[in-house]
Structures are given as C-alpha cells and as structure tokens.
C-alpha cells in the first residue's frame, strides 16, 4: 500500500473545535452563568460599590476609602470581629477536638455505633433558627439550666451566658458546636475508616499504645481530612448569622454581634449600603485569606487530572 | 529444643465463620516457611494469630517455647511486614525504623546502632532521612523489612510483602529476601499466593485450603510428590495434566489407554480402584527423547504458545486436553501431530474419591 | 381590590390596632392582605425596602416617617399623594403640622401620617410599689430615689428590653428630662457636638449610667416583655413610648389604679411627635394606584383615626376629632399636644444610619460597664460625623 | 512461665498447659467503662435540646412558669402543637405555621429537583467531558461556595428584579439553585470522577452521546449520591432563613421565617410551649428525612467530603 | 490493500507533556499485534488514539484505508476491551452486549442474533440475564470481549484485558483469546506489560519505550534478535546476562575473558569498539552438554531458586553476576562451582554507545 495522504479520499478536515462536545457546553451554561454573573459579577459589584457613598440605593458616588475608615473605627465592627475571632477560634478547636474524639470512640468497634452516630449527627439536620431557639430556652436563667442547678440546693450557681456580655459568645458556642460537630465527626470517622488497617497492626507490633497511635501516627495521616474539616468549619463560621439572630440577636447590647449581622443590619436597617458593602468586602477578604492557603495545599501541591 | 514456633489445635472464628480449624504447625528454628494458598484460605488469619493481632478462639501458640497465646504482639518477639508496607507516612525512614525502639525505651545509642545495622543490611542508608512518600515501592518494602529487622526479633512474619510490586522488582526483592534469610538465619513465616515465590523461597511450604494445611513439605516434595489432587493441581503453571481412569492390578487404564505403572513409587500396596493420573507438562518428553520413554503416544497440536525460554503446546490426547512444555527453540505448529512420551515414575496417582496420593 | 399592607405591628395591642384599619378597609369592599413582619422596624424595614427595590412592591407599607424613605422617593419608587392630600385638606387638619412636613419632599406629599407617638413616658407598676411599701413616684427623680426600696423587695426597679432601640429611647427620654429641651435640640437637630460634649450631657450620661444599674436584673429582650414585667409587678417601672399603653389595655389594667404613666418622665410637660406613616410604592397597575389613594384617604379619615388610635394607644394626627373615649394616659398626651409642648422626633432629624450607630452605642453602653464619660465622647463623635 | 522442659513434655503428651484459647476479659474493663461513659455523657448533651423541646411543648403555660425546663410534663397537653400549627399569630395573620409549611414545600420541591438536576449534569460534564475553560468555571464555582452570602445578597436583589422574580417563589427557587450548585457540583463531580473512566470510554465506543451516557449509564449508577444530594438539599433549603427572609414576601414566607416571626411576636408573655412546638414542627421534616436515611447520608458525606 | 490500521506521524501531547512522538505503525489485516512496554510508556495512549478516545495532536490514523483521524469512536469500526472490564453495572449481560447495537439503531432481530452468536462463541449463554456484579472476573472479561464481538468490528483493541485476573485464570483466558483470534481472524491490537502474554499471543510485538516503538517484530525475533539493549533487557525473565567489554577484530574481550564471536550473525561488518554482550540464562549450558559448547567457564553458585519446572541459579562469573536457567530436576547447591558453556551464535552483541545490535 502506498502512502496516499494526498488523494482526496484520504484527507479529512479537522472539525471546528467550538462545536466539539457541544452538548457538554450547552449543559454547562447554568454553571457558567452562575459562576460568571452571580459569583464573579455579584462580588465585583459589591466590591465596587463599597467605594461609594451609597445609602438606601446604590449610587456611583465615589468616596474612596471613607467607608473602610468608618468601618474600622466603629466599635460594633471591632466587637464583631473580635467576637468572630473568639467564636471561630474556639469553634474550630472544639469542633475538631470533639469531632475527632467522638469519631475515635465510634471507631473502637463499639456496640450501638449507628445509634450513637445518629444521636451525634441529628442536630445537623436542624436549622440554626431551631438550634438557637432551643438553646435560648435551655440557657434561660429563670427556667433552664441555672434554675435546675439552683433547685438542687446550690443557690449561688450562676450560668446565664445569654445575659452576660462577657460570656455570651460561649452561649452561642455551645449551640454552634452542638449543631456542627456531628458532621465533622462523620467526616473524621470516614477518614479513620480510610486508614489502612495494616498501620494499626504495625503500630501494635511496635508496641505503641492506642492513644499514642492516634496522636503520633493517625492524626498526622489524616491531614487532608483535617484540612477539609477546617475549611468546612471556617466557611461556616464566617457565615455565622442565623444562629445569632435566633439565639441572642446580637445581645445583650452588642456583645454578640458578628460581621455577617453587621453587614445585613447596615445594608438594610441602617440603610447605609456603602457601609454594608465595605463590611462584606472585608469578610470576603478574610475568606480569601483562608482559602488561598487551602487551595494551595489542596490543588497546588499535587497535580491531578 | 528446636521448635521456634509451635501452633497447637488452633481454632479461629469470626462470629459464626470458622476460618481456621484445629490447626497444628511446628516451625523449626531458622526455617523459612511459606504459607501458600488461594485467596481467602486463611493465610493472613493464621499469620495474624501468630502475631497476636487476632485473638484465637481456641488452642495455643508457642514462640521459642514460651506460651504467648495471651501475650501482646510487641511482647512476642516477632516482626511483621505487610503487603501495603504500612509505613508511618509522616515520619522519615529513620523515624519509622526507630519508632518501635523508642517506644520500648531502648537507649539512644543502641537505637542508632541498630538502625545503622539494618540500613546497612538492606542498603537503605542514603534514604534514612527521606519520607516514605519519596520512596519507590521496592524501597518502601525494604524499609518495612527494616522495621522488623531493628527489633532483633526471633520470628519474621511476612504477609504477601511483594504483591504490590511490579514483576521485575518482585524478582529482585525475592532474591534479596532469600539472601537476607541466608545471612540472618532467623525463622521466617511468609504468606503468598504466588507459587513461584513459594517454590523459590521456602525451606518448607504449607499449602492451605479452607483453613486447613493440605500438605507441609519441601518445595521439591510439594512439586514432585503432591499429597493430594488439590496440591497437585494448585502447584505448577501450566497446571498438571490429569487423566481419569482405573487402576487395575498395577496398570492405569483409561479408554484405549493402558499404562503399566512400573517404576512408580506407591505409598502403599496398590489396590484396584478409580484413580486420576497426573503428569506435569515438562515431564512429557518429545522429540528424540521419546524413544527412551517407557510409554509413547501421538498427540495433535492444538495451539502453540512460544514463551521465549520455552514453548507451551496445547495438544489433544484422545479426548483429553494435554499441556506440554517444550524447549524455547522447538519449532512446532498448530495442526501437526507429534510423538510424546511419558515416564510413569514421574507421574502422580490419586484416588478419585479421597483425592489422596497413592 | 386586594392591597397587601406590610407593617411590623405584631404585639397584642398593635395587632388589635391594625385590625381596625383592616376592618375599615374591608368595609369599603376591598380586601386587606396583612403583611405583618415580626420584630422591630429594624427587622422589617430591610424586607420592605428590598421588596420595593426588587420590583415587587406591596400595596402600602408602614415606615417611620422622616428620613427613612427619602431615597426611595428620590428614586421615584413612591406614589405621589399630593392630589389626595389636597382633596382631603390635610394641610389644615394634620396637627402638629411637622408631621406632614416630614412626608413632604420638594413640595409633594408622599406619605400618610397615621398616629403620633411620643417616647418620653415612664410607666409605673402600683403592685410593685405596694409590695415594696413605698408610694408611687411622681417623676423620674423620685423613681430613682425609690429604687433601693424596690430592690430590697426583690423587684427589678427598671425593666429594660435589651435591644438598642429601646435603650436609645430611654436615653432620649432621660436626655430631655435631665438636659432640657434646648440642649437636646442643639445636639439632635443642629448636630452640635460641642454641646454633646458639654456639662448638660455629662449629667445625662451619668443619669443613664445610674439607670443602667437599676435595670441590671432585667433579662428580657422585647419591649413588651419588659412591659409585662411592669404589668405583673415584677418590675417597678419601664421607660417606653406611649404604645406601651396598648399592652396595659390588653391586660385590662386601669390607669391610676393598676399603673401610672408619666409623660416627659413627670419633669417636662413635653413630648416628641414621632409616629408612623404609610407609604404607597409606585405600581404599574392603575387600578391598584387608585386603590392606594383610596386607602390613603381612608387611613386619615376621622373615624378610622379614632378607632385606630384608641386601640394602639397613640395620639391621632388630626386635632379635630373627639377622643373622649381615650383613657387617662392618652388624655394626658392630648393635653400636652394641645398646649403645643411638642418637639420633632429623632427619626426625622437623624438618618437611619446615624440612628443605628447611636443605637449600637447605647446597646453597648447599657449592657457593659462603659464609663459615662467614654460613652459621652463616643456619642459626641457620632453627632459630629452625622449627616 | 513454667520450666520449658516440663512444658514441652506436657505438650508432647497432648495436654493443654498454660494459657489457651481467648484471653479472658473482664466484661467491664476500665477502657470500656471510660469509652461508653464518655459516649453516653456526650449523647446526653446532644439529646438534651430535643428532650427539652419535646417536654416543653407538651406542657401548659402555668406549669412552665413554675420553672424546671427539664421536668417531664405533669399534664400532657397538645394544645401548644395545635396552636403552633394553626393558630399562632404574626400580626393579624393567625394561621400558625401551616401556611409557612406549605410555602416551604412549594419552594422545596422545585428547588431540590432543579438544583440536583443542574448540578448532576454539571458534575458529569466536568468529570467526563472537560472542555477548555470548564475547570476555570468550576474553580470559580467552588470558591463561590465559600464567599459570604452577604457580598451577593444585594446584587441578587437587583438580578431578581431585572428578571421579575423578586418576591416570587420561583425567585427563591432560583436562589437556592444557584447557591446549592457549588457544593452539589463538587459532590457529583467527585462521584462521577470515581466512576472508572473506562466505563465512559466503553460507552463512547458503543456510540452513546452526551445525554445517552448521562441517562443510561451514569444516572442509574449515581443513585447513592443522589440520595445524599437530596438529603443535603432538603435539609439545607428547608432550614434556610437568610434567603427566605430577604427574597420572599409574607405570603411566600417559608417555615423558618414564619417560625422566627411567631417566636418573636410576643403577645404578653412568651409562650414557650407554643414556641417549642413550633420549633419542633419546623425541624420535623429534615429530622424525619434524616432519621429515615441517616445511613446513606453518612456514607455519602464520607464519599463526597473526604475525597474532596 | 492489506493494511488494516495505519498510523502516520502520530503526535500526542497532554499539555506540555509529549507522550507520543512521530509514531508510525502499519498493522496488517488479521494480524495480532501486541504493544508491550513498561508502565507509562504510552501504550494505552496509543490505543486510545486509535479508538478515537483521545484527540491526536498531529498525524493521521487510517482504518481499513479510511482516514478516521477525526471520526467518532463509534464510527471507526473498532471494539475495545478494558482492563477493568468497564461493564455497565446496572444492565444485564444481554443489555451490555446490545447497548452499542441499540445506539446504532440496528433492528431488534438482528441484535438478538448477534448477541446469541457472541454468547455462543464465548460460552456465556447461561449468564445472559445476570448483572455484571454476579459474575466472576473471568466471566466479566468474557462479556467485555463479547461487547466488542457483537459489533462486528474490523479491529479489536485490548487494553491489558487480563491484568485484573489471578494468575491461573489469566493463563486460561489467554489461551481462549488466542483460539478466538484463530477463529475470527480479525485484526487485534493488544496492550500489555506482561511479556509472557506478549510472547504467547502476538503475531508481531511492538516494544515501546517513552512513546517510541523500539522494535517491531515476531516474538521469535524480539526474543532472539533484540534490536537494542533496551529490548534485550526488557524481554525475558530472569533477564539477559550482560557483560561489558570490547570487540577486537571479531573477538569479545572483557578482563581475562576472550570469546571469539565465531558463528555470530553480525548485522554488518564488525568494527572494533566498546560493546556489551548479552546471553540469555537458558542459553547457558551446564552438565554434560558443556563439553559440546564452543566456550567453557567455571562459575561459583551464589543462590539457587527451585521453581519446579526449572531451577534458577545465580552465579558469579569473574566479577559479574550471572543467571543460569537449569532443569527443574537439577541438583545444585549454593557454594558449589560448576562448569558452564556459552555458544556465541546464540548471544547478542550491542554497541555500548548507541545500544544498537551489531
Ligand atoms: N474481620 C473479618 N470478619 C469476618 N470474616 C473475615 C474477617 N477477616 C477475614 N475473614 C474471612 O476469613 C477468611 C480468611 O481470610 P484471610 O484474610 O486469612 O485470607 P487470605 O488467605 O489471607 O486471603 P488473601 O490471599 O486474599 O489475603 C476469608 O474467607 C475472609 O472472608
Ligand atoms: N490525561 C493525562 N494527562 C497528562 N498526562 C497523561 C494523561 N494520561 C496519561 N498521561 C501520561 O502519559 C504517559 C503515557 O500514559 P499511558 O497511560 O499511555 O501509559 P501506559 O503505557 O498505558 O502505562 P500503563 O501500563 O501503566 O497503563 C504517562 O507518562 C502518563 O503520565
Ligand atoms: Mg491475606
Ligand atoms: Mg495503560
């Protein structure tokens, strides 16, 4: 056979690339619109308008960094940030700790595992509004925990976090952790189950105790799971709003204000859109600060198809 | 006393599933024992019982004469190497090697000495400061062996240590492992389902099936005098040729075929009964040598597989398929008819019913 | 025609009052679709505004009049009611006229004032004072003096809902009582920060700090819960606007017998004239536009004014109607109104933005141990930057 | 340890000397007591709110005022439940949660369907039909999942207004679809990526196109992940408050917003029993869904999240 | 025209990574071609290009004389069988077989006929109504082959179809596949990295490395006349023995060793240069046969691996390691010294620098 690439029958034209996988492209249109218009467009719009003096209606009336200046001199914002930092710190640590410990307990081949797992996970199915109200009721000093303990005879016992500005964030934490730790437990459990059985055997042969194995061997191996959990927790923390609204509404005073609430209050209640946009831009920045290292660890480190 | 590991009447069940049944095994000091069997036959389970990673349901285990049935794995004087390596991924190779020792509160200089020695034996000195993630499969497996080595144990347990490696590396590490055993002279118990590994490594092979040991013997015994039909069929690739027939006063008969079993080493006085005869493909002689064979047949060639070093021929011998291993240079073609010869003294005879060797 | 009306009147007395509007409107053959939004105006306003901006306007909506709707009007989103107002002669009947002024932008009228609310009231529980064995005080100063006795009897002297707007309201009331009208006007209307830093306001902040101590044990959030503490005698007093009257009425308490009310905290015979107004977002449908105008006229009609304000416990916006059925507290208010002891509401003077900032400050001040001087300085700074 | 010689002799004699069989264990070892103790204690913390809500919702107001949230009701009454469902007021509107419930149902069904349909197709396209730029859009989408909603609230108000869906149930459906997309797409993409690529190739060789492979090969295989997605979306959308409060109007309020309204419309004293009944009613749907399919959920979360 | 598949100047890159570089390959009608190479050398990539599952970067592909470079996979007249079987798990075997036909809108009776025929050929009739989950590995692979079979294609593509099966089954299916090819006489392109499979199945083998074809030839050529050092080393297990040295006027010299290359079939007139000589382990003769060998040496035995059918001996020949394959019955021990013989006509000589065969 002669090589006949020049005969017409044997040359075929390369089809237009644009129409390749056309169905896939059409099917992706909703995603593209969402990504471009809502996420990129919406965010950009907000950032742009945070440099304006918009009040009730968005107006392109430039005021430079005024909104940011004011933001960072506002007590409420500072308190919100501090609260969020406090809540975030403890929520991350405690949720991870509780989630991991519970997962480790459940991983010990115990009886009734699925019952316990269900108990730990069910709060996740409830909304923050429900969570907030339930805990508001339990923490009510006149009827709830405090009065229960007092009725046992310890009459000076005081535990009313929702009315004490100093510890109100812990009142929120109790509820937040109650709601969120189950999911983390679930993820950790899956992570633990994914660890090669042989590692446990190797550690046993090496004579390493159970707890030490967890701390020295297993936890470092679960790094990706911890990172996933951390990102999940962190993204939830930044959005913290519903719980505060339902449980304390920022009170007492402004002791439990959080940034998300600041944004919404200023955008809609105080009718100072510019201020709200500036605050939400700050929130965006903090998310970016969290996301970049994560994205780097997750996607930058190892290249996968 | 010469027994390194003794297993007495071992039973093991997972819930209702009996995996090991009244198993007995004596392993001598310095012996290289291979547990061979198809998947799910209980090899790993037995190994884990010896290591103390599974609690026995009944029976006893002795290591170096000590009853270790209730002892912790770390107290049994064993080291174990896993198929998946099971290295601690976040520790360096040095950390992996020394972790167990540190935990046993062994003084630092001693640890260093032992790590250095193991690294030297296994030639992994340049890798000591790397993490397992930065090692190739073969290097990882060497580190895993090292982890057992540093613990100065009496008994090494290997659970399919080479299964995750590619063919070439497997051969290399197999040879290395054999050399290591020659050098250390420790007792080694090695689980595999690869018969080549078993044949080449073992001092003795225990062929297992369904939680029982079918035959325990040297590779030569196992290969040439399989105790029963299962072992005969399981060992060897391509597998043994079997022909069913009857033993009639020392003559094997199957259809037109009549083969006097002169020269066959009967285990007891032969009794007439239905039997199966087994002949290994490479014990079928061809070419000029046929003339010398006690028995000669004609066979139709069905398919030829050249394998380089030798050639496999699939032939038709009467109604039976017959596999013949020939020289790599043999020039035969499908469709030809060739003369083949069989030497009954190299064949194996099994009782059809009990499947035991006669 | 169905008109959806949004408002945030959800407490017992408020709801009863809205029902009067609804009845009257339904009686005209139209239908009132109630769009109550729970919570304070702070919760409701964003929803209302986002709906108007979002192109899904309701038929009518409550908003505090004043500066809250300014931008919506400027953006042309609110219905011009000038023709209705002229037809009804609102200019002449609305009293005080400042109410209508705040509905007016560039000479056009955009809202219907429906009531006058004043914030400077002190509500006192007779039960509580009886239990403490001291006479019911006649003004703020006496109340402060009587507080220790209440505390001894295990009664919270001052009920205070822990929400910024309530604390700000209390602050405003105490300001007028302590610093006087001129200082208040100088600061709130003219935004003079020097006065806010001055000695009059120092006294105010100290008084508030003192009041803060009296409210220490008050753990409620909503204003009506605080009122309920007064009704049930768990608290001695509450600083709340005249709408608290509604709660007392619902609880079937009688003024002078079960409780007392002191306008201007019993020190100044003066009331601010805030209040609620209804706005009508622009709608494409001419039928609805006509109905909106009809409703606007209805809301200010004499009968509706009477029934509504009686239920709500607020004062009517027109001086020409008979409010004889009103109870004692309302009568006191009407009296002050008639003598012209009025001042504009903070809502009208300050933008929502400044208002929110001040509320935040008050919330912080009331619920922490912030020294009076620090709060004063922060307050002055807010006044300084107010627009 | 016995003397080896005697021991050997014993072994030779076939007798079982020394430890044999399983190691004897105390039924309640210290580790077990600790383990189960911890689990039970922690379980109490998790169960407490549910218990309190149920108990409170079954009490009458007088009993509640007497205190002790934790005591069981002396006299069980279902009045609070009735009231919460049908009578509780927000302003003039005294229809309880029932209207919110039906609104939520009306929002839920199309949102769940739409968001899952779109996300599964996206996930499928992203894992099997990559085209130039598809990864970029996906990355934006994922980052979008972590952007605080606050930055997008207002622009969405404008967008909804432009397409005329502000305040409409369908507007909210759209919002839920948009905000559900990142996580669901990730979930489906991870799942479809774990389907062996060869299966996809085999179908291509068999002449199947984009939709044929999706409907005939991928969809039937993706049932477990669909269950997970449905549970996630049902609970997520049902529990949403922020979007419900901003993008709807009172007639179309979902149940959570209605709940918040009822609880915050205090008339006189707070009716804790009604509030708790309302709270429970609101949580009922996701709880039922969750309890009915908890196992699948757990498995799916593991599959979707850990691989992520 | 006799070419079934032609590949012209094929380039394929993944982004910056060039996987295939200017590759040319002609496959004749009815030929069984095996692509052999170590992992990552581009075998699957090439197969996917032929199947149309990867878009080529440059070059052309012809099947049956048609330029199919841009055609859809289903239009190319190919069927493909994958390592992981890739059966549609929710369809029955029958559904799996008929899916492609239904897509092609073939009438029902025709589909049934074809499925029945394929099922008969592959002996999977009893399985037709089962789902893949209820099949064993071998049965699954048969169904996967059936899926290609029903489509009546010109070219079958196999991507390591037997790698997921256990050793025994692999051998059986290999034989079946060979029989199938004999029966159908289709063109088959088969990817593997198992040289035994390649040697036994192929009409011609293409040994690949780094995206290039190193040698294309019959198994016999590849085994006995490897074109370069890579092929020589890659093919054969255990691998060829290599000794470096110099060619000096037709004599191979290395240290003390001098070996006249009489009888060696030089590809061109030999020139003096540094060379490497390669001798396969089974071409080293031992025992009585040494006497006949042109060259004789003594070697020290280092390690013995009995493998049943034959025995591998690792010996020391001067400074070099030397692998020798002996009969399974050979009785030798580590430490012994034995005489070995080499026949230069069976050795291979390579240029040290270019690594090409001389
Ligand atoms: N934890 C367990 N619970 C129940 N059954 C088990 C468990 N572990 C193993 N088995 C069963 O015990 C039998 C023996 O398993 P084992 O792992 O010892 O096999 P194996 O010979 O090592 O096989 P392989 O070659 O596949 O590793 C199998 O049938 C297996 O199903
Ligand atoms: N999608 C891809 N993107 C980037 N590189 C790829 C991709 N697929 C394959 N490669 C690279 O192309 C090279 C050839 O891959 P290919 O799968 O063809 O190897 P192979 O010979 O089939 O190996 P194996 O025997 O392991 O299947 C490898 O180096 C691989 O890393
Ligand atoms: Mg095993
Ligand atoms: Mg491949």
UniProtKB/TrEMBL annotation, chain A:
Gene Ontology CC: plasma membrane
Keyword Transmembrane: yes
Membrane association type: Multi-pass membrane protein
InterPro entries reported in the protein's UniProt record: ABC_transporter_permease, MetI-like, MetI-like_sf
Keywords: Cell membrane, Membrane, Transmembrane, Transmembrane helix, Transport
A GO BP entry: transmembrane transport
Domain ABC transmembrane type-1: 81-296
Chief location: membrane
Entry's transmembrane regions: 26-51, 84-106, 118-138, 167-192, 213-238, 277-297
Protein location: Cell membrane
Sequence similarity: Belongs to the binding-protein-dependent transport system permease family.
PANTHER family reported for this sequence: ABC TRANSPORTER PERMEASE PROTEIN
Name the record gives this protein: Glucose/mannose transport system permease protein
Species this chain originates from: Cognatiyoonia koreensis
Upper lineage: Bacteria, Pseudomonadati, Pseudomonadota, Alphaproteobacteria, Rhodobacterales
TrEMBL record, chains B, E:
CDD domains on file: ABC_MalK_N
SUPFAM superfamilies documented for this protein: MOP-like (SSF50331), P-loop containing nucleoside triphosphate hydrolases (SSF52540)
Pfam families to which the protein is assigned, alphabetical: ABC_tran, OB_MalK
Keywords: ATP-binding, Nucleotide-binding, Transport
GO biological process: carbohydrate transport
Keyword Hydrolase: no
Residue ranges crossing the lipid bilayer per the database entry: none
InterPro entries in the cross-refs: AAA+_ATPase, ABC_transporter-like_ATP-bd, ABC_transporter-like_CS, ABC_transpr_MalK-like, ABC_transpr_MalK/UgpC-like, Mo/tungstate-bd_C_term_dom, NA-bd_OB-fold, OB_MalK-like
GO cellular component: ATP-binding cassette (ABC) transporter complex, substrate-binding subunit-containing
GO molecular function: ABC-type transporter activity; ATP binding; ATP hydrolysis activity
Plastid in keyword set: no
Domain ABC transporter: 5-235
Protein family according to the UniProt entry: Belongs to the ABC transporter superfamily.
Protein name: Carbohydrate ABC transporter ATP-binding protein, CUT1 family
Species this chain originates from: Cognatiyoonia koreensis
UniProtKB/TrEMBL annotation, chain D:
Pfam families: BPD_transp_1
Domain called ABC transmembrane type-1: residue spans: 101-293
One GO cellular component, as annotated: plasma membrane
An annotated GO BP: transmembrane transport
Subcellular localization: Cell membrane
Keywords from the UniProt entry: Membrane, Transmembrane, Transmembrane helix, Transport
InterPro entries, alphabetized: MetI-like, MetI-like_sf
CDD domains, alphabetized: TM_PBP2
Gene3D superfamilies cross-referenced by the UniProt entry: MetI-like
Chain segments annotated as transmembrane: 33-54, 107-125, 137-157, 169-192, 213-238, 274-292
Primary subcellular site in the record, as a coarse category: membrane
Membrane protein topology class: Multi-pass membrane protein
Recorded superkingdom: Bacteria
Family of this protein: Belongs to the binding-protein-dependent transport system permease family.
Name of the protein this chain belongs to: Glucose/mannose transport system permease protein
Source species of the chain: Cognatiyoonia koreensis
Lineage: Bacteria, Pseudomonadati, Pseudomonadota, Alphaproteobacteria, Rhodobacterales
């Amino acid at each position: 056979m002669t090589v006949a690439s020049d005969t017409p029958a044997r040359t075929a034209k390369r089809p237009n690339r644009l129409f390749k996988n056309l169905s896939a492209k059409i099917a992706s249109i909703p995603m593209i619109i969402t990504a471009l218009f809502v996420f990129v467009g919406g965010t950009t719009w907000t950032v742009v308008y945070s440099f304006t003096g918009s009040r009730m209606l968005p107006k392109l009336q430039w005021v430079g960094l005024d909104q940011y200046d004011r933001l960072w001199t506002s007590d409420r914002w500072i308190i919100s940030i501090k609260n969020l930092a406090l809540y975030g710190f403890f929520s991350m640590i405690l949720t991870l700790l509780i989630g991991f410990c519970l997962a480790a307990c459940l991983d010990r081949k115990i009886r009734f595992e699925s019952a316990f797992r269900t108990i730990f996970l069910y709060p996740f199915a409830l909304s923050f509004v429900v969570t907030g109200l339930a805990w508001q009721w339990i923490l009510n000093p006149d009827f709830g925990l405090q009065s229960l303990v007092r009725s046992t005879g310890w009459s000076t016992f005081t535990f009313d976090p929702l009315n004490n500005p100093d510890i109100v964030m812990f009142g929120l934490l109790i509820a937040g952790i109650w709601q969120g730790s189950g999911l983390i437990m679930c993820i950790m459990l899956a992570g633990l189950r994914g660890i090669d059985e042989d590692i446990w055997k190797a550690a046993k042969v090496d004579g390493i105790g159970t707890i030490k194995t967890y701390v020295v061997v297993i936890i470092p191996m679960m790094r990706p799971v911890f990172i996933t959990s951390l990102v999940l927790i962190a993204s939830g923390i930044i959005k913290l709003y519903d719980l505060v609204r339902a449980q304390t509404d920022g009170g007492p005073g402004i002791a439990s204000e959080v940034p998300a609430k600041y944004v919404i209050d200023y955008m809609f209640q105080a009718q100072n859109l510019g201020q709200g946009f500036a605050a939400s831009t700050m929130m965006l920045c903090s998310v970016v600060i969290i996301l970049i290292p994560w994205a780097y660890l997750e996607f930058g480190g190892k290249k996968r198809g | 006393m010469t027994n390194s590991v003794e297993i007495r009447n071992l039973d093991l069940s997972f819930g209702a599933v009996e995996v090991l049944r009244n198993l007995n095994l004596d392993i001598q000091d310095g012996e290289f024992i291979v547990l061979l069997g198809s998947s799910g036959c209980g090899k790993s389970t037995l190994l884990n019982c010896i290591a103390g990673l599974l609690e026995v349901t009944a029976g006893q285990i002795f290591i170096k004469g000590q009853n270790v049935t209730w002892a912790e794995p770390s107290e049994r004087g064993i080291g174990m190497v896993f198929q998946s390596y099971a290295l601690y991924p976040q520790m360096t190779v040095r950390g992996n090697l020394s972790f167990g020792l540190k935990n046993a509160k062994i003084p630092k200089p001693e640890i260093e000495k032992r790590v250095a020695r193991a690294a030297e034996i296994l030639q992994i000195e340049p890798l000591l400061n790397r993490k397992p993630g930065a090692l190739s499969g073969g290097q990882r497996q060497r580190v895993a062996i090292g982890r057992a080595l540093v613990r100065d144990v009496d008994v090494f347990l290997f659970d399919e240590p080479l299964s995750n490696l590619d063919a070439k590396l497997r051969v290399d590490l197999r040879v290395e492992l054999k050399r290591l055993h020659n050098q250390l002279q420790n007792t080694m118990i090695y689980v595999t389902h690869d018969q080549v590994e078993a044949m080449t490594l073992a001092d003795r092979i225990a062929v297992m099936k369904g939680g029982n040991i079918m035959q325990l013997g040297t590779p030569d015994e196992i290969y040439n005098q399989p105790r029963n039909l299962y072992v005969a069929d399981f060992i060897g690739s391509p597998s043994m040729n079997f022909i069913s027939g009857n033993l009639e006063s020392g003559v094997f008969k199957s259809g037109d075929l009549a083969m006097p079993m002169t020269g066959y080493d009967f285990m007891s006085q032969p009794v007439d009964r239905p039997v199966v005869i087994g002949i290994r493909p490479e014990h079928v002689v061809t070419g000029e040598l046929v003339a010398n064979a006690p028995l000669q047949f004609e066979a139709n060639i069905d398919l030829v597989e050249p394998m380089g070093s030798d050639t496999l021929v699939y032939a038709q011998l009467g109604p039976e398929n017959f596999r013949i291993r020939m020289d790599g240079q043999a020039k035969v073609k499908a469709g030809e008819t060739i003369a083949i010869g069989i030497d009954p003294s190299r064949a194996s005879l099994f009782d059809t019913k009990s499947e035991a060797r006669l | 025609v169905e008109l959806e009306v949004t408002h945030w009147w959800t407490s017992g007395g408020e709801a009863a009052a809205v029902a009067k509007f609804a009845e009257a409107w339904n009686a005209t053959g139209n239908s009132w679709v109630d769009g109550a939004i729970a919570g304070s105006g702070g919760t409701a306003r964003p929803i209302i505004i986002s709906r108007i901006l979002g192109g899904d306007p309701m038929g009518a909506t409550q908003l505090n009049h004043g500066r809250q709707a300014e931008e919506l009007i400027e953006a042309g989103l609110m219905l011009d009611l000038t023709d209705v107002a002229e037809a009804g002669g609102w200019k002449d009947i609305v009293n005080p006229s400042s109410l209508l002024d705040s509905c007016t932008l560039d000479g056009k009228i955009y809202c219907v004032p429906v009531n006058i609310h004043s914030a400077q009231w002190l509500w006192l529980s007779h039960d509580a004072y009886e239990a403490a064995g001291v006479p019911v005080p006649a003004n703020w100063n006496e109340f402060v003096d009587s507080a220790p006795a209440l505390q001894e009897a295990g009664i919270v002297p001052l009920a205070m809902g822990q929400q910024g707007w309530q604390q700000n309201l209390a602050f405003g009331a105490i300001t007028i009582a302590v610093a006087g009208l001129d200082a208040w006007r100088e600061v709130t209307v003219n935004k003079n920060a020097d006065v806010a830093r001055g000695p009059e306001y120092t006294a105010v902040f100290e008084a508030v700090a003192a009041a803060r101590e009296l409210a220490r044990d008050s753990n409620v959030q909503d204003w009506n819960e605080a009122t309920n503490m007064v009704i049930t005698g768990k608290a001695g007093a509450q600083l709340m606007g005249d709408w608290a009257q509604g709660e007392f009425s619902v609880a079937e308490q009688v003024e002078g017998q079960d409780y007392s009310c002191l306008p201007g905290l019993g020190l100044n015979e003066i009331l601010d004239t805030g209040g609620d107004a209804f706005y009508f977002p622009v709608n494409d449908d001419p039928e609805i536009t006509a109905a909106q105008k009809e409703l606007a006229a209805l809301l200010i009609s004499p009968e509706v004014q009477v029934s509504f304000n009686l239920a709500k416990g607020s004062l009517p916006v027109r001086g020409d109607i008979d409010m004889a059925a009103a109870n004692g507290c309302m009568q006191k208010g009407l009296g002050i109104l008639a003598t012209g002891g009025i001042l504009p509401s903070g809502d009208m003077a300050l933008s929502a933005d400044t208002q929110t900032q001040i509320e935040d400050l008050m919330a912080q001040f009331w619920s922490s141990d912030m020294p009076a001087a620090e709060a004063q300085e922060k307050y002055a700074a807010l006044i300084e930057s107010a627009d | 340890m016995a003397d080896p010689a005697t021991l050997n002799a014993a072994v030779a004699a076939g007798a079982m000397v020394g430890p044999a069989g399983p190691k004897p264990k105390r039924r309640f070892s210290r580790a077990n007591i600790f383990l189960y103790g911890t689990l039970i204690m922690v379980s109490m913390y998790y169960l407490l709110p549910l218990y309190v809500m149920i108990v409170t919702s079954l009490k009458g107001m007088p009993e509640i005022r007497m205190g002790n949230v934790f005591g069981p009701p002396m006299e069980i009454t279902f009045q609070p439940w009735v009231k919460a469902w049908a009578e509780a007021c927000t302003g003039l509107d005294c229809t309880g949660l029932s209207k919110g419930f039906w609104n939520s149902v009306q929002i839920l069904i199309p949102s769940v369907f739409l968001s899952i349909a779109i996300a599964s197709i996206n996930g499928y396209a992203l894992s099997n039909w990559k085209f130039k730029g598809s990864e970029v859009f996906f990355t934006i989408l994922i980052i979008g999942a972590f952007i605080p909603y606050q930055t997008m609230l207002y622009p969405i108000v404008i967008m909804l207004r432009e397409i005329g869906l502000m305040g409409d149930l369908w507007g909210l459906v759209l919002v839920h679809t948009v905000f559900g997309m990142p996580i669901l797409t990730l979930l489906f993409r991870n799942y479809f990526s774990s389907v062996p690529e060869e299966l996809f190739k085999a179908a291509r060789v068999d002449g199947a196109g984009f939709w044929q492979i999706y409907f005939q090969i991928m969809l039937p295989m993706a049932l477990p992940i669909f269950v997970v997605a449905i549970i996630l979306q049902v609970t997520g959308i049902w529990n949403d408050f922020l979007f419900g409060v901003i993008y709807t109007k009172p007639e179309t309020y979902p149940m959570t917003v209605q709940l918040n309204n009822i609880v915050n419309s205090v008339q006189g004293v707070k009716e804790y029993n009604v509030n708790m009944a309302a709270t429970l009613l609101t949580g009922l749907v996701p709880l039922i869904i969750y309890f009915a399919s908890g196992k699948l959920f757990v498995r799916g979360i593991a599959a979707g999240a850990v691989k992520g």
